[in-house]
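Memo to structure team: turn this sequence into structure tokens by end of day. - J.P.
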Amino acid sequence: MRYEGADPVADIEEARKHFQRIDTDGDGVITAAEFKTALAQGGDWNVTDTVAEAIIKTRDLDGDKVLSFDEFWAYLSK
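Reply from structure team:
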């Protein structure tokens, strides 16, 4: 998502919009179920609940089993 010479503010605004699309219930976190749904909508129908949970776990910095925007942004801006 980061591009050479791109405006970091624009990047974070785009990331926030993407986060909000995935966070379908609007509670401020992305659950494994929401993540799985987003992947399916993107055409990846093979993701199981277990795989979605494992992906969230690798990006979940505080161990609460969901992704906050800060965790989402930290992963994207690596």
